Amino acid sequence: MSSINYSERIPNNVNLAEDRTLQRALEQWQPNFINWWDDVGPEGSTNHDVYLRTAVSVDPQGWAQFGHVKMRDYRWGIFLNPGDASREVHFGDHKGQKVWQDVPGEHRANLRRIIVTQGDTEPASVEQQRHLGLTAPSMYDLRNLFQINVEEGRHLWAMVYLLHKHFGRDGREEADALLQRTSGDVDNPRILGAFNEKTPDWLAFFMFTYFTDRDGKFQLSALAESAFDPLARTTKFMLTEEAHHMFVGESGISRTISRTCQVMNELKTDDVEKIRAAGVIDLPTIQRYLNFHYSVTIDLFGADQSSNAASFYSSGLKGRYEEGKRTDDHVLKGQTYKVLEVQNGQLVEKEAPMLNALNEVLRDDFIKDSIAGVNRWNKVIEKAGLPMRLTVPHKAFNRQIGALAGIRMSPEGKVISAAEWEGRKDEWLPTPDDRAFVASLMGRVTEAGKFANWIAPPVMGINRQPVDFEYVRFG
Ligand SMILES: [Fe+2]
Ligand SMILES: [Fe+2]
């Protein structure tokens, strides 16, 4: 089951050839996918040979193979982690029952919605990143961008397979619609807010892959617990690929900071104008980008109290992050969780039923995970002997969703007036001037082993190749 059949048009480890109807339906969807890739995938990349990893097995040891391929010829396919015949639902009202191989009728609408919402984010990010290749700071970074793009394409395949196999005609219609919505489109946008934002430059790209791909990690982890076994097995394999995306973000920001600190020490200055004049990104601008991407991303977890979240959990559709490692009863009835709200101009904590607060639980797990990497960035600054530190803003800062939506709040968590917000928001969120400055640094570097001035080289290359390896052969 874990070996992947590459002799078929659609590589898969789900015995697709045995289900002719399904195979035909997916083979009809495939050219639409390729058209979508040609239309809104990485711009100007058609003739490049890119050193990509391709999934060849779902065995954790040696699941991927590396080689130069044209992205259009990337073997997108359908890979599920191996099944476990004895697997049981381990949370919610169905705890202890056998997991489901098919969709129960009463959960059909909710499961379809969960899969469509997840599936929609995958092509969205490819669309958001489509121009970045034209300003890649190195061949190494360009390759990483393309690796992420093809894998997000594969994640779309993963969700489309579930829709086609388990949801009949409306599943096929949803699969078509996934190729019709477009990130940022006024008439037919992507479903979630953060996936309609622009990713205009590489600082935004690294922040996106650090924070927003990490949202993906937490959503996928929660779905990997699902009682609907095909969804659990699919998302488990997607998580294997996701780790690299977050690595690209974390190391990209780390290298940016490292180069900035080097210049600050050379010039013995923390004057933003002087730092910018030297062609590197000042730390306050990095902090503002961080504030933006962090706040937009934590909105993706949804309203802090949600009856949908409760029913998704109780009915076994979506668990918590690392459900199996938790020591409570995995039913959560009668338990409570702290959520925030504003009372008389002050933020106050209040207890909400835990089941209704599961979006907040997942958001808080995400926050913990995010902060760990920010602390690693601070180590880079500390090692350079500089006093500034990056922080994540308060979780009520710049929120658009839930009880905290629209509240004027400083990054430290103080409720402020609309006038104070207007007066100070340029200290806290990227300004048009910041974005124009960052954009001014974005120039394409195509020579192997060379890096743009604003970013340090990585410590090592990909798949033990040297840093100056020819990661992209420009055709
Ligand atoms: Fe993804
Ligand atoms: Fe990703």
TrEMBL record:
GO terms for biological process: phenylacetate catabolic process. GO terms for molecular function: dioxygenase activity. The keyword Ubl conjugation does not apply. Its EC number is 1.14.13.208. InterPro entries: Aromatic_CoA_ox/epox (IPR052703), Benzoyl_CoA_Oase_BoxB (IPR017635), Ferritin-like_SF (IPR009078), RNR-like (IPR012348). The keyword Oxidoreductase applies. Keywords: Dioxygenase, Oxidoreductase. Gene3D superfamilies: Ribonucleotide Reductase, subunit A. It comes from the Bacteria. GO terms for cellular component: cytosol. NCBIfam families: benzo_boxB. PANTHER family: 1,2-PHENYLACETYL-COA EPOXIDASE, SUBUNIT C, PHENYLACETIC ACID DEGRADATION PROTEIN PAA. This is Benzoyl-CoA 2,3-dioxygenase component B.
